[in-house]
Design brief:
about 700 residues, alpha+beta, 6-stranded mixed β-sheet, 5-stranded antiparallel β-sheet, 39 strands
């Protein structure tokens, strides 16, 4: 239950640190403390009538910025021996990036643990922090150090155990090392401690330790016993083991930590500043931003960058809700929780070339889509890159906008942040989001999309989309079914390439897939005049069942090697072949003279259809005209493999029909028959001769 005591710190415990003689009324402090706690509890709770119950806990948390952090620990055990020098810099850079994305967000953990391990064990240290900024500052200070022992193995088990001891239950531990475990004999001790708290242990292993044995190719190899140590712990605790290097460790961290503590960062703005630009830069902060993060690459110290609020106040980073650090990669990172909605200013104290990236945690989220205009004036989702100097519509789905939020401008910016063009935005309020859209003509340069508007409180806001669009001079269209691919059966995939440029170009089409299912040539060249196109096909033949595989078609210009278009599609491989009905033979014709009710029954027809299927059972085979035609085939009960033949017979009273084949999972295949060239049967009245009359010829 939420009470005043666990919402605010114990004021009395602070006052007891003061000498009684420092306050003439110190004898009344305890009474004042009790009265203050009681008054606060009455205001908040008051037997179910306090403000928390009146406005609801969710609104209370929003108004008073009360965060319900994840009830788990984010823990890291890092090998800081000399051989880890390069790796530690890469780890620090990525960990700080992830932490600054997480601090203050809804996904922030309840606390943090940092365990540093070395050899000897007296060099091992473990720290626990509730404040994410303190964790960031500690990570920033990590430096690789040479120890007394020069062997390669380090005390990884001791580092893990020190972290586990400080962690909450049901939390993840991430281990970073380049060395074998010197204390591998403590394997079961680590497993027992982790399982007792339901802690998953994931290890990220690099291969830099110079004492490690080398393979025949000269590359360092990790010993089998080392892999076994980390692998056994991972398997026993539900973790994983990743072998990586400093160049790729960031991608691995994004994956493994991002799954548990996902970042919901949005981009406010990004731009480059040359040394010739000395003016302050405006930062638009709207009322929905809970954490603002400013990254400056190219600075030489954290003091190179200052932030000023709209009233001219300098941010001093003393409130406990903000921090400014300088990383070993040459980046200054500023993080501010709950900044006031206003126009803040970024000031340069040292003039260098900078790259500035401004991100935030915010309730306003945006999904984007480029729509291309078809010949029938329809708009469909663009696949691949937009074509230069062509019309497109950008559609932005804005979530968390509020009923009073407005969008007024959609701009295209170049890769350095400069505005290429601005377009008035159309706005449509929908049930769950707001649609903001604008039509534009594609520039010849790379571009991003940026939205300007006002939030629900009327304050200005900006959002920049992360995707970088690269206009192309060639169009690529894939003409292929998206149905599941049958294992062992070949599927042809077609494509069309069209030169949309103004001069003749030679293009190379490259085809690849992630399971080696593509058969035949994987590169084809086309020389196309302006406006001309060419068609091609390639085959895929899956050999592995129950997988999802991807194939990619790239189109590059032979003159410079630049990839102009790249489209990836996914297909499911199955060993279940759904029913497929094909007409293989027909006999009979329903001419004009037969298409009337007087004599249509005098003109019979027959047909033969084949139904292929495998790995499924058929539920029924029927026609769309019921008993008007006759269908005959083998008994399909329990039959799981085709093909089967269906004999169909009727007359010109039914000149057209469809045969429906349905399997037990509801998949339908149809094959059509038409004997009357699309004509229908006309109704005529049969006239009989009067009784007793005769006709002579």
């Amino acid at each position: 239950m939420m009470t005043a005591e666990n919402l605010w710190p114990d004021v009395a415990s602070i006052r007891t640190q003061l000498l009684l003689t420092w306050s003439p009324h110190s004898d009344l402090h305890n009474q004042a403390y009790i009265a203050a706690v009681q008054a606060t509890e009455n205001f908040l709770i008051a037997n179910g009538t306090g403000v928390i119950y009146t406005i609801g806990p969710k609104l209370f948390e929003d108004v008073f910025h009360v965060k319900r952090r994840k009830d788990m620990t984010l823990a890291m055990a890092i090998d800081y021996t000399a051989s880890m020098t390069d790796d530690i810099d890469a780890v620090k850079t990525k960990v700080i990036e992830l932490l600054t994305n997480t601090v203050g967000s809804p996904n922030e953990p309840a606390d943090y643990v940092l365990s540093l391990f070395h050899d000897p064990e007296s060099w091992n240290f473990a720290y626990k922090y509730v404040d994410g900024y303190e964790m960031i500052n500690k990570v920033q200070t990590i430096e690789a150090e040479s120890g007394d022992n020069t062997d390669c193995d380090e005390l990884a088990a001791a580092g893990m155990l020190a972290a586990i001891q400080l962690m909450r239950d049901d939390s993840p531990l991430y281990v970073f090392t380049d060395a074998d475990a010197k204390d591998a004999d403590r394997l079961q001790e680590v497993i027992n401690a982790a399982k007792a708290k339901n802690i998953s242990v994931t290890s990220l292993l690099t291969s830099q330790c110079t004492r490690r044995k080398r393979s025949a190719l000269g590359r360092p190899e990790r010993s089998a016993s080392s892999l076994s140590f980390f692998q056994q712990i991972a398997e026993a605790t539900g973790g994983s083991v990743y072998e990586t290097d400093k160049e790729n460790i960031g991608n691995v961290l994004d994956t493994v930590i991002g799954e548990t503590f996902p970042s919901s960062e949005i981009i406010i703005d990004s731009f480059n500043l040359s040394s010739a630009e000395t003016a302050d830069q405006n930062i638009t902060v709207d009322s929905t931003i809970t954490v603002l993060k400013i990254s400056v690459t190219g600075s030489s110290a954290e003091t190179d960058v200052d932030i000023y609020y709209a009233n001219g106040t300098l941010e001093t980073y003393t409130s406990g809700k903000s921090t400014r650090i300088y990383t070993s990669s040459g980046e200054t990172i500023i993080s501010i929780q709950h900044p006031p909605g206003s126009i803040m200013k970024l000031r340069r104290n040292v003039i260098n070339d900078w790259k500035v990236n401004i991100t935030a945690q915010s309730s306003i989220k945006i999904d984007s889509e480029l729509l291309e205009h078809t010949d029938t004036s329809e708009m469909v989702s663009l696949k691949g890159s937009p074509i230069m100097d062509s019309n497109y519509t950008v559609a932005l789905s804005v979530y968390g906008f509020g009923s009073n939020g407005t969008c007024h401008t959609i701009a295209l910016t170049d890769s350095t942040g400069n505005v290429i063009s601005s377009h008035e935005a159309s706005q449509l309020q929908r049930d769950f989001d707001t649609l903001c859209a604008a039509t534009f003509r594609t520039p010849y340069a790379e571009f991003r999309v940026k939205l300007y508007g006002n939030d629900d409180s009327g304050r200005p806001f900006t959002r920049k989309l992360s995707e970088l669009y690269k206009p192309a001079s060639v169009e690529l269209i894939i003409t292929a079914s998206t149905d599941d691919v049958i294992i062992g059966k070949e599927r042809l995939i077609g494509y069309e390439v069209k030169n949309c440029g103004t001069v003749t170009e030679t293009y190379q089409v490259s085809i690849s897939d992630d399971h080696s299912f593509v058969h035949g040539s994987t590169t084809v060249g086309y020389t196309l005049l302006s406006g001309d196109g060419a068609n091609g096909t390639f085959a895929v033949k899956p050999t592995t069942p129950s997988v999802i595989f991807s194939y990619t078609i790239d189109v590059s210009m032979v003159s410079n090697g630049d990839v102009q278009q790249s489209i990836t599609r996914k297909l499911v491989v199955t060993d279940v072949e759904r029913p497929d009905c094909t007409v293989v033979h027909t006999d009979g014709l329903c001419g004009i003279s037969s298409l009337n009710t007087a004599n249509c029954s005098l003109y019979p027809w027959t047909a033969l259809a084949e139904v292929t299927f495998s790995g499924t059972l058929l539920d029924s085979i029927s026609s769309t005209v019921g008993m008007s035609v006759k269908l005959s085939h083998v008994n399909i009960t329990g039959l799981s493999t085709g093909p089967i033949t269906v004999n169909i017979s009727g007359d010109c009273c039914t000149p057209s029909l469809h045969v429906n084949v349905i399997d037990v999972d509801g998949f339908i295949s149809q094959c059509g028959l038409s004997f009357g060239d699309g004509q229908s049967v006309q109704s005529v009245e049969v006239v009989s001769e009067p009784s007793g009359s005769s006709v002579s010829y």
